[in-house]
Amino acid sequence: MRRRAFLTTMAGGLLAAPLAAEGQQAKKVWRIGYLTGGSAEREKSWLASFRQGLRELGYVERESIVIEQRYAEGRTERLPELTKELIQLKVDVLVAAGDSAALAAKKATSSVPVVFVTVADPVGLGIVVSLARPGGNVTGLSDLHADIVTKRLELLKEIVPSASRVAVLLNPVNPAHAPQLRAVRAAAPALGLTVLALEVREPDDINRAFATLGKERASGLLILGDRMLGTHVTRTAELAIKSRQPTMFTQRGSVEAGGLMSYGANFAELYRQLGTYIDRILKGTKPADLPIEQATKFELVINLKTAKALGLTIPPSLLSRADEVIQ
Q: Quick one: which of 194, 176, 177 has its CA closest to 185?
């Protein structure tokens, strides 16, 4: 009897064991790659918004999702290498932040789903076929920088109505900058402006650009959106104040760093919405079937402390339209 009871107990245990193991199996932990030409310091607030968006959808970092981050720190040439690293980690989705990162990701893989964010003109850059049906393995969110660059020029002219010449600080390596410069040049005559292009390929070029700016006697500086330029925004803002140049940036963080003014998409909102794309792809939707989302919320930010340092009086009509005024 004792032997029969032992065998019965063993049999029951063997049958129960697989069921218990199945109940204890760990949930799938999704691996998300984050690729950018910028720096961790510059993008930490945007990543916080991205994480918030994921939490709102029920994802818990290190429990159901892991974010593998790679930063080129302003060195665009490192993007192919960093993209390869993330692909080798077998990420489930690759987030590409910025124009150059999106192009690097598209070139590196046709199988890993890629979701870009803050890309100026995804169709014009050849990243997707169309906004409605991107095609391939790439989709994402556009900041519309290419469409509103002339609006920034108009705002800069409004703050310096006597200006007859404006400089444009750009990175020729950034594929989105050439068409934006053409748009600025085309819009300038109607505003009574001529345009001086100042190229910055690497950080050391920033000082040289400002030396040229001083000789050419421009009355304002328009800085195009770029991860490399953004990495050195504090330095750019300080040099602009020193050379008494009113500046127009693309992002509020640049104004917080000392820039005079910015007008552009709300990056925090775009990054929060990024989570929705990740969620849908992880649940089986193909990137090709997810339309490109374009920014709809734009913000004007003005730094009055910088205006005072430059000896400028901001027109009341402009102040009243500002979304935020930094004292």
A: 194
Element (H, E) at 93: strand 93-97
Cα(14)–Cα(62) distance, integer angstroms: 33
Q: How far apart are CA 129 and CA 121, in angstroms?
A: 11
Q: What is the pLDDT of residues 200-232, one digit of tens each?
A: 998 899 999 999 998 888 999 999 999 999 999
Q: Which tokens sit at 182?
A: 């053409």
Neighbouring-strand partners of residue 195: 166
Cβ contacts of 6 within 8 Å, gap of 6 or more: none
Residues in the chain predicted with pLDDT less than 50, given as ranges, are 1-24
Report pTM.
0.87
Q: What is the DSSP string of 268-321?
A: HHHHHHHHHHHHHHHTT--GGGSPPEE---EEEEEEHHHHHHHT----HHHHHH
Phi (first) and psi of residue 165, to 5 degrees: -140, 130
3-state secondary structure of 163: coil
**Residues across the chain:** 327
Q: Alpha carbon of 313 to those of 65, 245, 286, 305: distances in Å?
A: 49, 14, 52, 11
Q: What angle do CA 302, 305, 310 make, to 5 degrees?
A: 95
Give the pLDDT confidence score for residue 27 in this predicted structure: 77
Which domains are delineated in the chain? 30-143+266-297 (3.40.50.2300), 145-265+299-326 (3.40.50.2300)
Mapped onto helix, strand or coil, the DSSP state of residue 27 is: coil
Cα torsion at 252, 254, 255, 258 (round to 10°)? 160
Using an 8 Å Cβ cutoff, are 37 and 98 in contact?
A: yes
Amino acid identity at 182: R
Q: State the virtual CA torsion across 54, 56, 59, 63 in degrees, nearest 10.
A: 110
Maximal C-alpha separation, the chain: 106
CA distances from 308 to 32, 136, 162, 221, 304 (A): 44, 50, 18, 17, 6
